[in-house]
Design goal:
Helices cover about 35% and strands about 25% of the residues. The protein is of the alpha/beta class. It has two domains: about 5-135, Rossmann fold (3-Layer(aba) Sandwich), CATH 3.40.50; about 165-395 and about 415-445, 2-Layer Sandwich (Dihydrodipicolinate Reductase, domain 2). The strands form three sheets. Strands 7, 8, 9, 12, 13, 14, 15, 16, 17, 18 and 19 form an eleven-stranded mixed β-sheet that branches. It binds NADPH dihydro-nicotinamide-adenine-dinucleotide phosphate (NDP). NADPH dihydro-nicotinamide-adenine-dinucleotide phosphate binds near residues 12, 112, 134 and 135.
Length: about 450
């Protein structure tokens, strides 16, 4: 079926996000779905010639091995405008160059995004226009409320796509399928049978020249406040009746509204650390504080850990620990669900009786259920076994799934305004305590599992 044209208007088209993530994903999406005609309009303050813009787009597409008739059609019609996107007249002109229901993608620094929202209040927006925003959604709870207010003056909430590429279609659908299409998991999915849940996103990569952004954000804001709380909401939510935006986002909202720091105090529920020089995967990495652009006095953490409670019948008493860091020895991206131990081990059985653990790995999407079974040599001696499965792979890059939802006008997996505010509310006491120095900043050599005295997770 031939679909009507969508225009993707990228504000900040010459930036890192656009060329490294957005455009390659667009190329891949169009290669897989050539029936979906898309016109691409780029805008930024960079003075790019039309030819230079085309070669940026072509290079981004090549990096995703994108080709075919839809790619050729897009390259023939794409345009680029050198403008200040905070200027209302410039925005009006840009929108005049768009066809169909345009999607405006704010690939801009957050402060500039706010100015563009102000400028758009003086612009007549086309019917059906959609707005796609990148994290961070505000810089704190009040900032997120203010941003929501500005956006609400422009378009209805269902036209606002607050992007979280961790909530790509395939990852979320895999989680929902595992939980809600099997009777074996859902009856156990509560404080009756689960002891703890850890959501871990450890990277081996260091700063990679992103000091300008990262040194102001740190691991807590970069990962936990945004992505990991969203993943937690999907892991902990009640079964939605449908996959509609209203049902999925309501279910996530209920979880986040019930979430509080464990023990009520950041001192008990959070830890932070920063990497010193070390060796990661045989590569020598300098200390974080020696990286160009880093201000050591900012005390930015490169490893953050926060434990929360979800105060509902289902979850009260189960600690959810969210952790993410850079320059760690091992790359780990997993949700680790540790069940309570068996209430009684029949006398006569011996060996391993560790609790069962379900590991759900993110990228690549795999799962492993670790259980105790009677060993092959002596059936009275228990041994550990792992039942593994691989989820259906995502057909698209994470940003391809994001763009597909945007073009489809389905905001189910994007972050609703109220939940963006909740995520700031949850971490606000931690941010204050860390700023005040109430929680010490530990250190760890790059390439290790973190500070030596931190108990390992999962
Ligand atoms: P960059 O600084 O690389 O790019 C910003 C872009 O905005 C540039 O094209 C810049 O043009 C343009 N710009 C800034 N001010 C104006 C203005 N007044 N008028 C016109 N153009 C302007 O940022 P990123 O691409 O890294 O990030 C963009 C957003 O994406 C941020 O919100 C970030 O948090 C988010 N993000 C980024 C990720 C990444 O890996 N890069 C990952 C996830 C989210 P010029 O250079 O000419 O000023």
């Amino acid at each position: 079926m031939v679909q009507s044209i969508s225009t993707l208007l990228v504000l900040g088209a010459s930036g890192d996000l656009a060329s490294r993530l957005l455009l390659p994903a667009l190329g891949q999406l169009l290669t897989r779905h050539p029936e979906r005609p898309v016109r691409l309009v780029g805008a930024a303050s960079d003075e790019l010639t039309h030819a230079a813009w085309k070669s940026i787009v072509r290079a981004s597409f090549a990096s995703a091995e994108a080709s075919g008739p839809a790619i050729d059609a897009l390259l023939a019609t794409t345009s680029y405008h050198t403008v200040d996107v905070t200027d209302s007249a410039a925005l009006s002109n840009l929108l005049a160059d768009c066809e169909g229901d345009p999607a405006i993608y704010f690939a801009l620094p957050p402060a500039v995004t706010t100015l563009v929202c102000d400028a758009l209040t003086d612009v007549t927006l086309p019917d059906g226009v959609k707005l796609a925003l990148e994290k961070p959604f505000g810089v704190d709870e009040a900032g997120a409320v203010a941003l929501n207010h500005k956006l609400a003056q422009l378009v209805p909430e269902e036209k606002i796509f607050r992007i979280d590429h961790f909530l790509g279609r395939s990852t979320v659908l895999n989680l929902l399928g595992l939980r809600f299409a099997n009777r074996v998991f859902e009856p156990l999915w509560s404080n009756q049978h689960i002891a703890r849940i850890d959501i871990i996103y450890d990277e081996q990569l260091g700063l990679e020249g992103r000091a300008g952004y990262y040194d102001k954000a740190g691991a807590l804001v970069d990962m936990i406040q945004s992505h990991l709380l969203q993943v937690m909401a999907v892991v902990a939510m009640e079964p939605p009746s449908t996959l509609s935006a209203a049902d999925v986002r309501d279910a996530k909202g209920l979880v986040l509204r019930a979430t509080k720091l464990r023990g009520g105090s950041p001192k008990r529920s959070s830890r932070r650390a920063r990497y010193t020089a070390g060796t990661v995967d045989e590569q020598v990495l300098g200390a974080y504080t020696d990286q160009p652009g880093v201000k050591p006095e900012r005390d930015t953490e490169t490893l953050a850990e926060v434990t929360v409670d979800i105060n509902t019948w289902r979850w009260t008493g189960v600690p959810f620990t969210l952790r993410s860091g850079k320059a760690l020895g091992q790359r780990r991206r997993e949700i680790v669900i540790t069940f309570k131990p068996a209430p009684h081990l029949p006398t006569g059985l011996e060996g391993r009786d560790d609790p069962s653990v379900l590991r759900i790995m993110l990228a690549p999407d795999e799962m492993a259920l670790e259980i105790n079974i009677n060993g092959p040599s002596d059936p009275r001696v228990l041994e550990r076994a792992s039942l593994t499965a691989t989820f259906g792979p995502g057909q698209l890059l994470a940003y391809g799934e994001v763009l597909e939802s945007l073009f489809d006008g389905d905001p189910a997996l994007s972050v609703r305004g109220d939940t963006a505010v909740e995520c700031w509310r949850i971490v606000a006491p931690v941010l204050t305590a860390w700023r005040d120095g109430t929680v010490p900043l530990d250190d760890y050599p790059a390439g290790t599992a973190g500070p030596a005295d931190w108990a390992p997770l999962g």
